[in-house]
C-alpha cells in the first residue's frame, strides 16, 4: 500500500510539472477522484481544464473516460447513447450506452450549464445517485467523478441550481499569471513529462483507505464553528454539503500521507461551502480564520515560550531566576501533557514537543543544582 501512496505523490508532481500554476486544481481533481465527489472549474477557454481531466484518465489504466461539449441543443443520445433500433422494434425503449457517460468512471462535461431540460433530469440522477434509468430499469453506474467546466456561472432563474449544487468542489481557473511560467508554457516545457500510471485496483484501494481516514472530534467541533459563523453571515450550505465535505477532508489527509484529518485541512473547504459566487470571498475569510490547527499552534507556542525562558535566564542568570524558570517550564510540560491526552491522534507530534521542552527543562534544572557564582 505504501507504493500506492508514493504513486499518488508521483502523479501529483508529474501533473504539476506539466501544468503551470494549476497546483490547487491538480490537488482538487485528485481529491475529487479519491473521495468520489464532483468538481467544477469556471474559467475562460484555453486554461487546460479539459486537458487536465483527460490526462488524469490516461494515468489510471482501465478507467472509462467520457468527454463531451454540451450545447443548448444537446440530446440524450449524445450523453447516454442512442436507442437500440432492434429493441425498439420489440417495444423496448433501451439505449446503447457503450462508450457513453453511463459506462464511464470519470466524465468531463464542457459547458456543463448548457444542459437543457431534455437531459437535465437524467444527468442529475446519474451524478447524484450513480443511477441511470434504461427502459425504466435503474442501473448502477461505475461513475466516480464528474468534472464540469464552464466559462461562466449559471444565471439565476435558469433552473440549474440543483446541477450547480451537485459539484462539491468549485474552482475559478485563470490564465497563467507569472511571466516566467508563461514563457515556459510557450516553450512547451513539461509537455513531454512522462506520466506515472495507476491501475484501477490501486485506485479503488486508495479510495478505500480514504474512507478509513479518521476524523478527530476537534475537526467536527471546528466544522460546527465554521457552520455557525457562516450562518451568522447568511451563508447556509446544506447539511448534505457539510456531510460530503468529510470525504474531501479525508482525501486531503491521505494525499498528505496522514491517517487522520487535522483542522488545517478545513481550509480546503473554502472551495466548497459557499452557495453563490458573491459569497466566495467571505466564505474563504471565515474558513481560513477558523480553520487553524490549534494543536500545532499550541506546540509552536510552547516551543517558543520554552526557548524564551532559557534565553532570558542565560541573559540574567541567578539561582532565583533558575527556580522561577523551572516552574514556568513545568507548566508548559503540564499543558503539553494535557494536550496529548485530549488529542490521541496527534500523540507522536505532541510527544516530540514534550521531548524538546524536557531538554530545556533539564538544562535549566542543572543550573539550579550548579548555580552561577
UniProtKB/TrEMBL annotation:
Gene3D superfamilies reported in the protein's UniProt record: P-loop containing nucleotide triphosphate hydrolases (3.40.50.300)
Domain ATPase RavA-like AAA lid: 219-286
Location of the MoxR domain: 7-180
Matching InterPro entries: MoxR (IPR045427), P-loop_NTPase (IPR027417), RavA-like_AAA_lid (IPR041538), RavA_ATPases (IPR050513)
Protein name, entry field: ATPase
Species annotation: Siminovitchia terrae (Bacillus terrae)
Amino acid at each position: 500500500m505504501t507504493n500506492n501512496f508514493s504513486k499518488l505523490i508521483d502523479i501529483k508532481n508529474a501533473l504539476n510539472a506539466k501544468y503551470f500554476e494549476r497546483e490547487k486544481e491538480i490537488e482538487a481533481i485528485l481529491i475529487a477522484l479519491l473521495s468520489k465527489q464532483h468538481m467544477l472549474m469556471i474559467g475562460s477557454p484555453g486554461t487546460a481544464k479539459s486537458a487536465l481531466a483527460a490526462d488524469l484518465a490516461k494515468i489510471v489504466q482501465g478507467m472509462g473516460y467520457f468527454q463531451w461539449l454540451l450545447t443548448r441543443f444537446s440530446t440524450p443520445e449524445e450523453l447516454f447513447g442512442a436507442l437500440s433500433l432492434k429493441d425498439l422494434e420489440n417495444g423496448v425503449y433501451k439505449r446503447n450506452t457503450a462508450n457513453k457517460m453511463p459506462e464511464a468512471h470519470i466524465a468531463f462535461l464542457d459547458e456543463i450549464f448548457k444542459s437543457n431540460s431534455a437531459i437535465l433530469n437524467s444527468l442529475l440522477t446519474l451524478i447524484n445517485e450513480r443511477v441511470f434509468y434504461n427502459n425504466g430499469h435503474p442501473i448502477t453506474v461505475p461513475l466516480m467523478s464528474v468534472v464540469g467546466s464552464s466559462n461562466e456561472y449559471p444565471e439565476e432563474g435558469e433552473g440549474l441550481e440543483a446541477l450547480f449544487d451537485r459539484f462539491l468542489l468549485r474552482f475559478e481557473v485563470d490564465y497563467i499569471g507569472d511571466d516566467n511560467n508563461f514563457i515556459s508554457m510557450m516553450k512547451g516545457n513539461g509537455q513531454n513529462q512522462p506520466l506515472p500510471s495507476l491501475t484501477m485496483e490501486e485506485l479503488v484501494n486508495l479510495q478505500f483507505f480514504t474512507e478509513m481516514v479518521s476524523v478527530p472530534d476537534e475537526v467536527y467541533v471546528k466544522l460546527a464553528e465554521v457552520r455557525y459563523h457562516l450562518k451568522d453571515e447568511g451563508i447556509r450550505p446544506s447539511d448534505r454539503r457539510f456531510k460530503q465535505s468529510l470525504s474531501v477532508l479525508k482525501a486531503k489527509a491521505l494525499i498528505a500521507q496522514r491517517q487522520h484529518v487535522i483542522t488545517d485541512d478545513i481550509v480546503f473547504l473554502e472551495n466548497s461551502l459557499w452557495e453563490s459566487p458573491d459569497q466566495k470571498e467571505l466564505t474563504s475569510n471565515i474558513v481560513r480564520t477558523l480553520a487553524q490547527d490549534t494543536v500545532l499552534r499550541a506546540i509552536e507556542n510552547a516551543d517558543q515560550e520554552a526557548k524564551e525562558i532559557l534565553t532570558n535566564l542565560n541573559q540574567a542568570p541567578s539561582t532565583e531566576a533558575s527556580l522561577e524558570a523551572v516552574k514556568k517550564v513545568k507548566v508548559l510540560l503540564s499543558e503539553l501533557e494535557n494536550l496529548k491526552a485530549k488529542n490521541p491522534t496527534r500523540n507522536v507530534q505532541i510527544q516530540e514537543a514534550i521531548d524538546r521542552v524536557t531538554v530545556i527543562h533539564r538544562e535549566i534544572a542543572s543550573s539550579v543544582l550548579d548555580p552561577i557564582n
